[in-house]
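Sharing a chain and its predicted structure for anyone who wants a worked example. Both blocks are below, sequence first, tokens second.
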Amino acid sequence: MPQLSSARYGKDNVRVYKVHRDEKTGVQTVVEMTVCVLLEGEIDTSYTGADNGVVVATDSMKNTVYGSYLTVRNTRPSMADNPAAVMAKQNPVTPPELFASIVATHFIETYAHIHAAHVKVITHRWTRITIGGKPHPHSFIRDSAETRNVEVIAREGSGITIRSGIAGLLVLKSTGSAFHGFIRNEYTTLPEVWDRILSTEVDCGWTWKAFAGLYAVKQSVPLFDQAWQASRDITIKTFAEDDSASVQNTMYKMCDQILAAVPDAAVVDYSLPNKHYFEIDMSWHRGLKNTGRDAEVYAPQSNPNGLIQCTVTRQQTKSKL
């Protein structure tokens, strides 16, 4: 007999835009997000028995994110429940770690048969435009495809786990990178290089130590933006300044520095695809030199490409027993 081993469902690609208007200064601040909500729980019969009575409609999930009137217990250890309205209209959507935790907590506390909620928030980049050296009060530019990503899991009886991250950060250095000393055999055609172009699209994440619940997340709100800024700065600075022997070694240095800068991060991970730029041999045209030290013109490549990944955790202290 077949058995349903696992199941979750939800609403993806919920686009949300929120504007905050400061009436005193006239300055407006905007946030644009894409949200995904997935639920787990006692929903097996909807798959195996066509029982829709256990289904929270995905349209209801969308409305929850947009601004339905919701009630969530803001549980504090050893304190009574403190109801709070939860929605994009009535609550701050920044930092995204808080907003995602609020939405996830709502689902496991509103529906008794839902035991876990997964909420992913992608915050899209809108940078304030500067005109004549002054920031414009209500105009913005999307200056890159970089996003700030958050993945939250609220699980009944187990608290909240949060992975914060950066994605789509495209970087390039025209020198300061090498790759040599690797294994060579009958399958190897790649030449060793002591100076090359290094480019990648950064996908970086740091997983926080577990939170007991929504109250604990709220207590940590000041840390989330600080950690994002520190991780972004470390990534960019290390990429630019490291005399890179390999992508592997450079990304490990990044992880090590983020763990030092963000004490409440338990795990840091990177996924860095190589964006290759190959020299073009132009010797066929009147002996024109364009390789090695003479290379100036390159052909950007799309695929195949190298993909380098790593996960770095804090060293576990050994028991003295």
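Comments welcome. The chain has six helices and 14 strands.
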